[in-house]
Amino acid sequence: MLVFIDESGYPRPTDSTKNPILLGVCIHENDIKPITNQIYKLKETIYGKQDEIKSTKLIREATITKNRTNNKTYVEGMVDIITSYDAAIFAVIMDRPDESIIVPEHHLPKQYYLLLKKVEFYCNHHHYGKAMMIFDEVHEDADRKIAEAITGFLFKTNFGRSFHHILEMPLFVSSAVTPAVQFADIFAGIVRHYYENKLDQKEPETEFQKWIVKLFTQLHNISENLKCFRNYK
Predict the structure, then answer these.
(1) For residue 86, which of 225, 227, 229 has the smallest C-alpha distance?
(2) Each residue of 113-126: pLDDT tens digit?
(3) Which residue intervals of the chain are DSSP H helices?
């Protein structure tokens, strides 16, 4: 099992996002080749040789209000691809904190711990083997801290040592050259907009909100469903 992970926003007081998201997309190894092929074909059909476009440029009101059909088609195509496979999505929805969250050195931030726990339980429930955690790289120092925190959790804590499905070597890759990571980037953006627009509490009012609800519903309906759970404030 390969788990592609990305963030949309960060849990800090100065961040512009109201509901930062950490999201993982679980894909079976045997599905990687056909999925990657479909992503390449989709991208080439819509954008040609253009480099990766981040979710911040794809999932925004201008995509609908300014009729940017290429971006809309690409996002919908990515959702259609993943929903045609036996995949699973897990997301941690956070509230922007009023104060900075202090994480002790070498400790795993809570949102990562929650995501790892969900993947471990998912693999255990379905009798899957090891799950490799594949992160969209940020920069070397930040990536190293997360890698050290994950291995420290798995090797040095009683609860972490009880995990038998998380491979003890997380990978950090560029989403520009590893297409499947783009799933996590785009889907995290969808989930963030869904909660920031409070669409879990009210009916959509704009065309953009209706689009977000449509995309979120599609993700929610895949095999394991979109499991969203609140972190801290």
Answers:
(1) 225
(2) 999 999 999 999 99
(3) 32-47, 55-58, 61-65, 69-83, 110-126, 140-156, 158-161, 181-196, 207-220
Segments of the chain scoring below 50 in pLDDT: 223-225, 232-233
Please, are residues 179 and 132 in contact by the beta-carbon 8 Å criterion? no
Closest by CA position to 24, among listed 106, 121, 107, 129: 121
Q: Which residues is 27 bridged to in the sheet? A: 2
Residue 232 contacts by C-beta under 8 Å, 6 or more apart in sequence?
Answer: 11, 94, 95, 97, 101, 110
Whole-number pLDDT of residue 146: 92
The helix/strand/coil state of 38 is: helix
- C-alpha 140/C-alpha 204 separation (Å) is 40
Q: What is the pLDDT of residues 20-44, one digit of tens each?
A: 999 999 999 999 999 999 999 999 9
Dig out the tokens for 213 from the structure. 């609800």
